[in-house]
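Example 3.2
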Amino acid sequence: MNTLKSVVTASLLVAMSVPALAQSTGKSSTTSQTTTKHRAAARKTAPKQDATAAQIQALRQEMQAQIDELKQQLADRDAKLQATQTSVQTAQEQTAETNAKLQSIVAESQSNKESLDTLQSKVTDMVATTSGLSNTLITTQANLRESVESPTTLHYKGITITPVAFFAFETVWRSRSLASDVNTPFNSTPYMGAGMAHVSELNFSGRQSRVGALFEGNTGPFKLSGYVEADFLSAGATSNENQSNSYTLRQRQIWGQAATQGGFAVTGGQMWSLVTETKKSTDNRTENLPMTIDAQYHVGFSWARQPAIRFQQKIGKWTAAASLEQAEYIYSASNSPNNFFIGSAGTGGGLYNLTANYSNNVAPDVVVKGTYDGKLGHFEAGGIARWFRDRYYPNGVGGTGSSAGAVNDTKTGGGFFANIRMPATKYLDVGVHMMTGTGVGRYGTSTLPDITVHPDGTLAPIKSDQGLISLEAHPMPKLDIFGYAGGEYAQRTTYRNASGVLVGYAPVSGNNAGCNVETLPTAAGNGLAGSAPYGPGTPANCLGATRAVIEGTAGITYRLYSNPRFGRLQYQVQYSYLTREAWTGQGGAPKGTNNMVFTGMRYYIP
């Protein structure tokens, strides 16, 4: 900057000197006339002019040097400026390139961020999935370990096998002996004229212990099931209680089933009758049995276990079912003719009991039932149809006469039944059962008669009714309290023959005079069954045809221990009061009563 100032100053001085010299020269030419005059004077001033010219020349040289230096500086500056411009342009290009790269990086970063977010989301999902898989794996391992160490089912090929069993110790005390185990023959409760009515009995038993298994195979389109269940409430020819107390294994249920995914099922084999109340739909193995220890259950409870084939179809909460079931007749009559028969004792080699009677059935019992399962409870209603056949001989009476004209005669019976089971409160369930009809006494637990006979030898179904009210409370998870009241009734059914004698069930002319008069035991015997000293007296002159059997029960079940791996241990106590009332006859209407106390301890496998 100082150099530039010096150059500018020198230039101004030169510029100022040049006009002055020009002015001086112009004056000399215009005044040439006076040149001579002044020549002498000029000669005197010449040295001064030469000195000035020399100064100017020196000044010019100096200025030229400065100008050259300035040009050099300007050239250097231009070179530097050019270089700077080149650098700036390069920088701008680099900046543009950098900006482009930066924008690309920003765009890529945004894309990477989105990818990162997506990746992070996937990672989060993967972590969650991995955690879920880990938990599932842990659960699966635990379940596998549990299934290996404590399997609930066994596996054979494609079949799962679920064992079912309980092991029981039970006792029964009755104020009037029935010479019976833990099952009570209700219709055999003795009148006061029987010697057994004056002694009590106390029996221990383990025979109601049960073993069985459920077999299941799922083919996809349909499910196959088979079930077997047995106990020891059966006696063989050598069974006794003298030492080994050996009794025989008895089939309770043995059946097979095929069920489709559409709710249709067909079941065949020995099973609970469709008359029996169920807890769910009409499904096998959901039978709603009284909670009693008594193996004969409770008066008023309608049931049977017998061979049958059952068809059922579920539609939502509704189920319709029908079954064809093994028929059998229970017969009772007074003053009956002997010109007919309904069956015979079992035949040797026929696999029936040689000491039991079997009816000649013309058709199976047909049972139909519909059920509904809803929030209010379980409801069911149904009907039963039965056919009773005998062969009678109109021309043969008292074993005399002719068999000519022998005819098979069939009578029809049947009835209606209904069951309701509802939760009254959170802790109390209420049940009502009823069955009414003709020829349906066999389906009551007291096994009152189905049929009697007309004077001509043809059969007559007997009207009967059965009813049961149940209360089952669950105040605590370990405790159940139950109470039942039930009754069964058989109607008097009689007909007068040609001689004026009443024939049939419970004729009013029947002799009941000795029902309450105790008789002596059998006078002689050899100690065999039914002979002295095992021959208590039985009432003489006592028809005692049962009109009604009534029972009331209260009891508790306490589960001392329950574990899904180790099973359940429970205790039960039951008290029942039983009444057997007879139809009025000659001598009145006898009545038998019994107090019964049951206790039980059972261990159920898980």
